[in-house]
User: What shape does this take?
Amino acid sequence: MSAHTRNGTRTAADVVNSIHFVVHENDIDRLWQAQQAIDLLALLDTDQPSPITLDHIAAVAAYVAEDLRHVLGNAHRADQLPAVDLADTL
Assistant: This one.
């Protein structure tokens, strides 16, 4: 448990003070989509014949990696937010 807890729960101020990076709402959607793509890959049964090839899996992995690069590139330190609207940077 964090040192910022009181009786095992965190206060709203504790949560806000612990934020290190800010991610744009559109990037949250990208993270959800990447997570769903990985979940679908995890469901593949590698012991059974399938029309899905390693090339298909590699394409999904490349898609997820590219989206993660964009999300991380758009993230800003909470104490150094840009003066421009983040929506303009998308």
